[in-house]
Amino acid sequence: MSDCILETRELTKEFKGFVAVKDVNLKVSRGSIHALIGPNGAGKTTCFNLLTRFLLPTRGTILYKGRDITGAGPAAIARMGLIRSFQISAVFPHLSVIENVRIALQRKRGGSFDFWRTGRVLDELNGRAGELLDSVGLAGFADAIAVELPYGRKRALEIATTLALEPEMLLLDEPTAGMAHDDVERIAALIRRVAADRTVLMVEHNLSVVATLSDHITVLSRGEVIVDGGKWLGKAGRGQYLKRAARGGAWK
Fold first, then answer.
1. What is the pLDDT of residues 134-179, one digit of tens each?
2. CA-to-CA distance for 41 and 20, rounded, in angstroms?
């Protein structure tokens, strides 16, 4: 089995003459935490949208586990085990925490008719839903209404629903954006835990989180890869690398 789980070749996206992503060659190693960073407007989220087929590439190829998925639809890609989160927390606000996770677990039942059945039919999913909530630190919030959760807890709930889909690879789009310091530490620790047996590709602006978690960093600027770095050689090396990357990306 190849060490590379996700690869792009000359991935490019143009919008009416504006090149948002240009000739991006990306290789994500299986079992790693790979960070995609860069200034605002660098093309990071556009890359995520291309990888998960929310956008169609202008040209280029996307390979997942050696399979060309460039023309696959978002649902098909998700069923392959490539699951993403979004910048804005995407939960059902007026359902309980456990109901949010249970909806994600319903995919295993193989149809949409569960929505027309009594809630008792879905009680068999409560055990697994509880395990997922416990894994993200939400065991005590199962009956809370999602809209009432603090922002950091909502992000944890979103990760729990993502894990319910049994991803082999997670794409996390700015998982700590807008969080207080304590929430940032909690989510960073959660990412480390869920990455223990999965691959994670994340877009993140918090360079402290990037330096702490990442095995590999790719820096984008104006849609192009300007720096691509491998394993770290200690904290000092990480700091120097990030400073160099920031200068290359005209960061302020």
1. 988 898 999 999 999 988 888 889 888 888 888 999 999 888 888 8
2. 8
> How far apart, in whole angstroms, are the C-alpha atoms of residue 15 and residue 21?
10
β-strands 216-221, 33-37 pairing: parallel
**Please, what sign has the CA dihedral across residues 100, 104, 107, 112?**
positive
- Going by DSSP bridges, is the β-strand pair 33-37/59-64 parallel, antiparallel, or unpaired? unpaired
Domain of 46?
1-81+169-252
Taking every pair of C-alpha atoms in the chain, what is the biggest distance, in angstroms? 58
Bridge partners of residue 15, in order along the sequence: 18
Q: CA-CA distance, 156 to 153, in Å (whole number)? A: 5
State the total domains in the chain: 2
Helix, coil or strand: residue 224: strand
Helical axes 181-194 vs 151-163, angle rounded to 10°:
10
CATH number, residue 241: 3.40.50.300
Q: Say if residues 200 and 170 touch (Cβ distance below 8 Å).
A: yes
- Alpha helix stretches (DSSP H) within 136-252: 151-163, 181-194, 207-213, 235-248
Structure tokens at 20: 């948002």
**SS3 for 142?**
coil
Domain boundary among 166, 193, 220: 166
Residue range 24-53: mean pLDDT, rounded = 93
pTM of the complete model = 0.83
Is there a single domain that holds both residue 131 and residue 71? no
Look at residue 227 and give its three-state secondary structure.
Answer: strand
248 φ, ψ (degrees, to nearest 5)? -65, -30
Please, is 176 exposed, middle or buried when counting C-beta atoms within 10 Å of its C-beta (0-12, 13-18, 19+)? buried
Indicate if 252 and 173 belong to the same structural domain: yes
